[in-house]
Amino acid sequence: MAQVGIVMGSDSDMPVMAKAADILTELGVSFEMNIISAHREPDVFFEYAKTAEEKGFKVIIAGAGMAAHLPGMCAAIFPMPVIGIPMHTASLGGRDSLYSIVQMPQGIPVATVAINGGANAGLLAAKILATSDTELLQRLKAYSQSLKSSVQKKDERLGRVGYKEY
Ligand code: RP5
User: Fold this and answer.
1) Rounded distance, CA 87 to CA 114, Å?
2) Spacing, Cα 10 to ligand 1 middle (Å)
3) Using an 8 Å Cβ cutoff, are 3 and 58 in contact?
4) Domains defined for the chain, CATH in brackets
5) Contact status, residue 74 vs residue 49, Cβ threshold 8 Å
6) What's residue 164's pLDDT?
7) Residues 29, 56: contact at Cβ < 8 Å?
8) Which residues contact ligand 1 via a Cβ below 6 A?
9) Rounded average pLDDT per 10-residue block, the chain, 166 residues
10) How many CA atoms does the CB half-sphere of 72 hold within 13 Å?
């Protein structure tokens, strides 16, 4: 049974949504991924959102662009956390997607990450699940440690190429 539902409005969103899937895979979190358009196939969308809880999803990550109603409509129906990913767009640079997703009315929150923030959406979903999963929490701590080590290695490299002090 998948713990996270990853849903996107179009296959054109896939490069961003794949980053969420990659992080969840790295952290050992199960997910189910779907392409469902709230605008182009509303009946399919409603079925997805209405059955998400009984499928066992604990979090939904929803990504969409332009007039991006998919995450907000997921949040209107699914009773657990929804994370929204605004897609970058050619016309308005993703501000259209961002405002559509982040400006939810009181009572229907969507935890909105940055424009094209697929990896952070995956991490946030894992952190939500880690509140009741100590093994996942340990893996998240190891992930944070790997980020720290990678910055430290870059700093050491500066010294080796002579830029540290001059
Ligand atoms: C949204 O419209 C999708 O989430 C996508 O970001 C955007 C454009 O969709 P396509 O025209 O590429 O299918 O529903």
Assistant:
1) 9
2) 5
3) yes
4) 4-132 (3.40.50.1970)
5) yes
6) 72
7) no
8) 8-10, 12-13, 37, 64-66, 87
9) 97 98 98 98 98 98 98 98 98 98 98 98 98 98 97 90 73
10) 17
Backbone φ, ψ for residue 61 (5° rounding): -105, 120
Report the alpha-carbon distance of residue 112 to residue 35 in Å, rounded. Answer: 19
Whose C-alpha lies nearest to ligand 1, atom 13? 10
Distance CA 113, CA 90 (A): 19
Half-sphere exposure of residue 82: CA atoms within 13 angstroms, side-chain side: 28
Tell me if 113 sits within 8 A of 83, measured CB to CB: yes
Give the closest residue to 89 by CA, choosing from 35, 12, 22. 12
Single pTM value for the model: 0.95
Characterise 107 by phi-psi region: left (phi > 0), alpha (psi -120 to 50), beta (else).
left
Contact 124, 19 (CB under 8 A): no
